[in-house]
Amino acid sequence: MFAEAGAWFWTMVVASIAILIGDYNGTLEPALNKFEESIGIRTVLPDDSTETDVPYYIPPVTEEVDSTWILPERLQIKKDTTNANVPLIRKL
Known about the structure:
This protein has about 90 residues and is mainly α. Helices cover about 35% and strands about 0% of the residues. The protein is flat, with a radius of gyration of 27 Å. The protein starts with 6 loop residues before the first helix and ends in a 53-residue tail after the last helix.
């Protein structure tokens, strides 16, 4: 069973387990940072880049929105279009 899986599959399984364990222990990010520094691709973001306020605010929708109004009449569910005991999606 294990021989048929192939080397690439088991390499990905071991790599995934190593990433999960490193993330759980909190050592994944420092290890990746160290690896990035060793190959010269590490980029450090400025401290204020993640603390800026959003340029606009959209308040949450409080009233219920009927999204079926956009359907053409032929696609809307009518009360008498089915003889099954299916509950109505919306009131007509």
